[in-house]
Amino acid sequence: MTFIQEIERRRTFAVIAHPDAGKTTLTEKLLLFGGAIHVAGAVKSNKIRKSAMSDFMEIERQRGISVSTSVMTFEYRDRKINILDTPGHEDFAEDTYRTLTAVDSVIIVIDGAKGVELQTRRLMEVCRMRNTPVIVFVNKLDREAKDPFDLIDEIEKELNINVVPLSWPIGAGSSFKGVYNRFEKKLQLFSSTDKQKLTEDILEIIDLESLEAQTALGESSTVKLKDDLELIETVYSEFDKAEYDAGKLAPIFFGSAVNNFGVQELLNCFVEIAPYPQKSVTDLREISPFDPKLTGFVFKIHANLDPNHRDRIAFLKICSGIFERNKPYFHVASGKQMRFSSPNTFLADKKSVVDESFPGDIVGLHDTGNFKIGDTLTEGEILNFKGIPSFSPELFRYIENADPMKSKQLAKGIDQLMDEGVAQLFTLKINGRKIIGCVGMLQFDVIQYRLEHEYGAKCKYESVNLYKACWFESEDKSQTDDFMTRKYNNIALDKYGRNVYLADSAYSLKMAEDKFDKIKFHFTSEFHLNAK
Ligand code: G4P
């Protein structure tokens, strides 16, 4: 296979959802269809996560075991598919957001009864920043669900994207009869199947007018379906691939992941329309995946908390060229050459050493502390990828030294953990107090534990009432000066010395935005570009 063919057959994406919508179940079914696993339950059980909410070590242990599920790779219809995991329960963190900077498209899972929920909205905001193409899967149709027209209105409004239903449900819950697949123009009838296996007892009917269809659906459902389809045709435009590629139009599918219903149709459509690796932007030039020289960036660092295996894995997204085992690459941040004797790829539940990887692939590099989030590997060029920002944390605490003899260790530990992207550090200008900002609650415990076990330092937290951290910019110096003076108590410096406004409530942020109308407030920042 040629280099170009290798790239064009790759599909790198993430499944995103609010917890419990069915992300794990859908991912698992996709892997089953791809033949990567053979029984359901092989990927991971997030039950452990759910039941051990307070016990972060248990969750970390689970994470350690499931590091290989960070990326799951399988082949389907000659495509090589890489699914990137987006942790969503207690281990929700900035990592979850940043993973979305490494994908070429996403599938969003929505619970048909609950509609669009908070975490989905947040993750979608990150997709919008990069105009990532989106397919929506409305799940759990075997249970009572919202009216499908209401649901797609909600999706359109809440996710701020145009939609086109490519399948359409017939009933829901106890009266769920199946879906009409508008993409393949056939009717698929639902019957409860053996959940552990892939079964083919989904009855497919091509002609809606046929006696078979009428008999299977009954008269009233057939009439309703025809009416619905007519309405859809008049209200929604046709599927337009260019609009989808631009992240402006989201095809919607309906189904029930746990029952394998609608999953294969989703996958068939996905492999047909989802984009292969696209261009990336750097501070030097635009990078085409077809460029022969290797470039890639680190979007996630996984540190193992088990004291017996204190290894780290840096996840590198390959953006161009071929990544070869044992070949020296240039680490732009340190200016050093590095070679990797055992880069890993991931296959469902195992990882294996790989000799060659292509754009779109993710390789896991064993790391002894050299990598930071956003670091670039090249064949000598000095460049940094754009679009790997920090995201505004929503949980804040003062961090204090609990052992004055170990202040150096504490400073070093905090510095390194921030480089890994575990959380963000802000230093208040007014008094120099340090504040840790996280996206998920668990991170506070992780930081405390790691500072003690890896750096021999002790920290304690104190609560602080803050809502969001915003980076800001303006061309109007006098308004900026005025803002800085008035809000001095809430201005801090981030790790790179940039000014950040720590708003203490949604109200004060809104007031600041109204009053200082020449200032732009940002909820994300480029991660490291301005730092160097
Ligand atoms: P998540 O990763 O998005 O958090 O969700 P996950 O797949 O773990 O699914 C959450 C729950 O929803 C699970 O039930 C799962 O079985 C169920 N589920 C997923 N898809 C469907 C569906 O199409 N229909 C119905 N009715 N349920 C679905 P659980 O009780 O938490 O676990 P389990 O005992 O079923 O494994």
Report the helical percentage. 25-40%
Q: Strand share of the residues?
A: 25-35%
Q: Helical element count?
A: 15
Number of domains: 3
Distance between the termini: 40 Å
CATH architecture of the largest domain: 3-Layer(aba) Sandwich
What class do helices, strands and sheet pairing give?
Answer: alpha+beta
Biggest sheet statistics: 8 strands, antiparallel
Describe how the helices and strands are arranged.
Blueprint: H1 3-8, E1 10-17, H2 23-33, H3 46-51, H4 56-65, E2 71-76, E3 79-84, H5 94-99, E4 105-111, H6 118-129, E5 134-139, H7 148-158, E6 162-165, E7 167-170, E8 178-181, E9 186-189, E10 203-205, H8 211-217, H9 219-235, H10 241-245, E11 249-254, H11 263-273, E12 280-281, E13 286-287, E14 295-303, E15 312-320, E16 323-324, E17 329-331, E18 336-338, E19 344-347, E20 350-353, E21 356-357, E22 362-367, E23 376-378, E24 389-391, E25 395-401, H12 407-419, E26 424-428, E27 434-438, H13 442-455, E28 459-463, E29 468-473, H14 477-486, E30 491-493, E31 499-503, H15 506-515, E32 520-522, E33 524-526
Parallel strand pairs: 1-3, 1-4, 4-5, 5-11, 6-11
Antiparallel strand pairs: 2-3, 7-8, 8-9, 9-10, 12-13, 14-15, 14-23, 15-22, 16-21, 17-18, 17-23, 19-20, 24-33, 25-27, 25-28, 26-27, 26-30, 29-31, 29-32, 30-31
Helix pairs in contact: 8-9, 12-13
The structure holds guanosine-5',3'-tetraphosphate (G4P).
